[in-house]
Design goal:
By secondary structure, this protein is mainly α. It contains 6 helices and no strands.
């Protein structure tokens, strides 16, 4: 005889479906440096990071390098790039800040950026913010555009012998 329907069953309920957030940002299409759309996203992410760094420097307790270092941990959510590429954004932002201070950044793997950042950290927070702001302005202006600008052409000349 089978148990009545109201009798608890020994079957496990189906596992709850996980609620997922938005999908992680996609990576480049091929090698990252040759994908213009991905380079544009890195450029935009660098500008966003510079804005975030400037805002975070309002709190005197957080050093510049700590603010920059935390970027890669939040790259997917705040910057719109995969966390794998967050380090590229971090390195570019650091180089831009050091260059805004008038220091030659050299290679991203060299000591010049680290030494420049440690020197900048010794400045008051307001001066650090000014350098970050200057770096963002300069980066927004000097970053290469995705498509090269076409040379300006002169308007067509009227045909000879004709007048209005």
């Amino acid at each position: 005889m089978s148990p009545p329907r109201w009798f608890p069953s020994h079957r496990q309920p189906p596992p709850p479906t996980a609620v997922s957030g938005p999908p992680p940002p996609s990576g480049p299409n091929g090698f990252w440096i040759t994908d213009p759309a991905f380079r544009d996203r890195l450029h935009s992410a660098t500008l966003t990071l510079l804005d975030i760094v400037e805002d975070c420097l309002n709190d005197d307790d957080v050093p510049l390098t700590e603010v920059l270092g935390g970027a890669r941990d939040h790259a997917e959510h705040m910057l719109g790039v995969s966390s794998t590429y967050g380090v590229l954004v971090e390195a570019e932002a650091a180089a831009q800040i050091v260059q805004a201070a008038g220091i030659d950044a050299g290679s991203p793997f060299g000591l010049a950026i680290a030494q420049g950042l440690s020197g900048i950290e010794q400045l008051p927070a307001q001066q650090q913010q000014q350098l970050v702001r200057a770096a963002a302005r300069r980066y927004a202006i000097t970053a290469p555009s995705r498509s090269p600008a076409a040379p300006a052409t002169a308007p067509p000349r009227p045909a000879p012998g004709r007048s209005r």
